[in-house]
């Protein structure tokens, strides 16, 4: 029996593969984090291995992306070495009609915002369940916080009307620790009417490193879905 999880996996695979197909020889590519990006990294590695494209270098947005890129044979570079990022391909947790995003489901939003924001083109890859009419409808806003400031930051987030929860590990006791050694607070604000204002306000709280609101960064959105049993990809 095919479950909803199977269909979402097929949609993620289809959209990841299609995004990898947009990479051309010589590009520096920002490599996103998450399960959809993982399919993209695998497909990109396969294209390089087959000789379909060459001279591609990746800039990973996380430890996960670094490991996958090495596994699939994608040469890596850094922001110190590369003069530009031609294309960043990354997933999202919510996408609204203005292409504003919530990211950070994998606690990688700080590096993702740096890499995705520097790219000439930021291509977002999602399955259709991520599309929302109003931002904040389904997913809380992840906020990366320096460990010594977690308590005052959570107090400040409550004062802003949010409902903050410290993200806890799975198969690890205690909080999730980011690739930078910080913690993540997931904040439910309900529907967000002013994402740009909230993004600035959150980053102004002392102790906050970055939050998962991505405003005005996404250029193109590719959406994967399974229609009549067949995976399809459309441009949003
Ligand atoms: C990681 C992210 C991911 O891109 C986002 O959570 C989507 O993940 P997935 O492709 O697994 O649904 O922002 O910090």
Measured between the Cα atoms of the first and last residue, the distance is: 30 Å
Overall shape? globular
Number of strands: 13
Percent helix among the residues?
Answer: 25-40%
Average residue pLDDT:
97
Beta-strand residue percentage: 25-35%
Major β-sheet, in short?
Answer: 6 strands, mixed
What is the CATH topology of the largest domain?
A: Rossmann fold
Account of the protein in words:
- This protein has two domains: 4-132 and 216-235, Rossmann fold, CATH 3.40.50.1360; 141-208, Alpha-Beta Plaits.
- 30% of the residues lie in helices and 26% in strands.
- The protein has helices spanning 4-20, 35-50, 63-71, 109-118, 150-159, 195-203; strands at residues 28-31, 57-60, 85-90, 94-95, 101-102, 119-127, 141-145, 163-166, 183-188, 208-211, 213-214, 220-227, 230-235.
- The protein starts with a helix and ends with a strand.
- The protein is built from six helices and 13 strands.
- The chain is globular and about 55 Å long.
- The chain has 236 residues and is α/β, with parallel strands linked by helices.
- The structure holds ribulose-5-phosphate (5RP).
Question: In short, what is this structure?
Answer:
By secondary structure, this protein is an alpha/beta fold. The protein contains six helices and 13 strands.
In terms of topology, how is this protein built?
Elements: H1 4-20, E1 28-31, H2 35-50, E2 57-60, H3 63-71, E3 85-90, E4 94-95, E5 101-102, H4 109-118, E6 119-127, E7 141-145, H5 150-159, E8 163-166, E9 183-188, H6 195-203, E10 208-211, E11 213-214, E12 220-227, E13 230-235
Parallel strand pairs: 1-2, 1-3, 3-6, 6-12
Antiparallel strand pairs: 4-5, 5-11, 7-9, 7-10, 8-9, 12-13
Helix pairs in contact: 1-2
Bound molecules: ribulose-5-phosphate.
């Amino acid at each position: 029996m095919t479950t909803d999880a199977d269909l979402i996996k097929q949609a993620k695979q289809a959209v990841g593969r299609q995004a990898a197909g947009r990479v051309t020889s010589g590009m520096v590519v920002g490599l996103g984090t998450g399960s959809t990006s993982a399919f993209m990294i695998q497909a990109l590695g396969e294209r390089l291995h087959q000789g379909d494209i060459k001279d591609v270098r990746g800039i990973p947005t996380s430890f996960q992306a670094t490991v996958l890129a090495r596994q699939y044979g994608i040469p890596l570079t850094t922001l110190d070495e590369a003069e530009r990022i031609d294309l960043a391909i990354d997933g999202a947790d919510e996408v609204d009609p203005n292409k504003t995003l919530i990211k950070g489901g994998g606690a990688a939003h700080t590096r993702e915002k740096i890499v995705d924001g520097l790219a000439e083109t930021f291509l977002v890859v999602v399955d259709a369940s991520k599309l929302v009419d109003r931002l904040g409808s389904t997913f809380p806003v992840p906020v990366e916080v320096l460990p010594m400031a977690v308590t005052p930051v959570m107090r400040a987030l409550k004062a802003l009307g949010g409902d903050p929860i410290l993200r806890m590990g799975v198969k690890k006791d205690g909080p999730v620790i980011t690739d930078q050694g910080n913690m993540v607070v997931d904040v439910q604000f309900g529907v967000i009417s002013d994402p740009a204002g909230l993004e600035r306000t959150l980053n102004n709280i002392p102790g906050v490193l970055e939050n998962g609101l991505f405003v005005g960064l996404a250029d193109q959105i590719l959406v994967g879905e399974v229609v009549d049993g067949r995976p399809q990809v459309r441009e949003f």
